[in-house]
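re: ur question from yesterday

yeah so i grabbed the chain u mentioned. its 150 aa long if i counted rite. heres the sequnce exactly as i have it in my notes:
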Amino acid sequence: MAHILIMHGVNLNMFGMRDPAHYGTETLEDINRRLAELAQELGVEVEFFQSNHEGAFVERIQQACTDHTDAIVINAGAWTHYSYAIMDALAILRIPVVEVHMSNVHAREPFRHHSVLAAVSRGSIAGFGVNSYLLGLRAAHALLSSSPTV
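ran it thru and got these structure tokens back, copy pasting raw so excuse formatting
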């Protein structure tokens, strides 16, 4: 069974309370529950990790090199736009990485338009709320299944 790591970055533990116009009202626990339900449907195993500490985030990515993680779905939050440390850690991996964002980062402040993680991700999904995560999990699953549709 494929093992997919879902990574939530800085401030994402505040979903449900943080700017509902951009992020909706579902909590991180709600999002993880929906991902777990989809994972069961897809026949994959998911693990969730959230941190507000960049070093811990990098260390968890590094751990994926040796712990049988098959793919990563990542929403690094604000780190997306400037963390070369996270980008470098992801570049070490030889597994698919799918970047996701709840809001449409391209329709927001200019600093959000650029992702340093895009260069080391197979693809990015943004602007669909919780469905961005669900689509990201589906994309990671398809990449692992060698589906020609992704």
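noticed a couple things. The chain has one domain: 3-144. also The chain has five helices and five strands.
anyway ttyl
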